[in-house]
Amino acid sequence: MCGVTSIEEALQAVEAGVDALGLVFYPPSKRFVSVEKASEIAFALPPFITLVGLFVDADEAAIQTVLDRVPLDLLQFHGNETDQECERWRRKYIKALRVRPGTSIEECAAAYPGACGLLLDSYRKGVPGGTGEAFDWQLIPDNLDKPIILAGGLNPENVSQAIEQVAPYAVDVSSGVESGVENERGKDPEKMKAFVEAVKQ
C-alpha cells in the first residue's frame, strides 16, 4: 500500500493486512511526506512490515537525508535513474517501469540487473506514478527473471482479475484505496480492507 501520509493511515493499512507500506519522497506528489513525518510513521509500525521509500530522480543529498532518519527496508525508484545510481546506496531496490504500447519490458528490465524486483505501472506523460490508470496487462512478457509488482489502476474491484491474469509476485495500490471525495484526501479504511480481502481471494 503506497502513499500513506500519517501514522493513522499506516496502522489502518497494517490492520487491513498489508505486507508493505510505501512512503513517497517526491515533493510534487499529493502523497509526499516529510522526513520528520516519515520517521514518525516508521517508528510507529509493528514488526515485519516492509517499509519502502519512493524516489523520483532525487539528488543524492535528499536521499541521504531520508536514509539517515528513516529506517527504510527497500528503495523504489520511479525516475530515470540508472542501475548504477540505484545500486550506489547498497540497499535492495525495485525499479518502476512505466508501460505503454510499444514498451519493451524485457529491454527495460535488462537495464536494471541490480534490481530485486520490477514494479510495472501505467504511463502518463509527465506523471511518474500514482495515475490511478491501468495498462494492458497482456503487454507483460512471461519470461521476466525478476519478481513483478503490478501497479496502476488497481482497486478492490479489479485486483482479483489482475492476479489471476498476471500472477504477479505482489500488487501495489495507492489511489485505488483512497476516499475519492473531492477536497478529502487519504486512504479509506474500508477500501483498504476490501482490497486486501480481494487479494487473498
UniProtKB/TrEMBL annotation:
Keywords, ordered alphabetically: Amino-acid biosynthesis, Aromatic amino acid biosynthesis, Isomerase, Tryptophan biosynthesis
Superkingdom, taxonomy of origin: Bacteria
EC number: 5.3.1.24
GO molecular-function term, one example from the UniProt record: phosphoribosylanthranilate isomerase activity
Main enzyme class: isomerase
One of the GO biological process terms: L-tryptophan biosynthetic process
Domain N-(5'phosphoribosyl) anthranilate isomerase (PRAI) residue range list: 2-197
InterPro entries: Aldolase_TIM (IPR013785), PRAI_dom (IPR001240), RibuloseP-bd_barrel (IPR011060), TrpF_fam (IPR044643)
Keyword Ribonucleoprotein: no
Entry's family note: Belongs to the TrpF family.
PANTHER family documented for this protein: N-(5'-PHOSPHORIBOSYL)ANTHRANILATE ISOMERASE (PTHR42894)
NCBIfam families, per database record: PRK01222.1-4
Protein name, entry field: N-(5'-phosphoribosyl)anthranilate isomerase
Gene: trpF
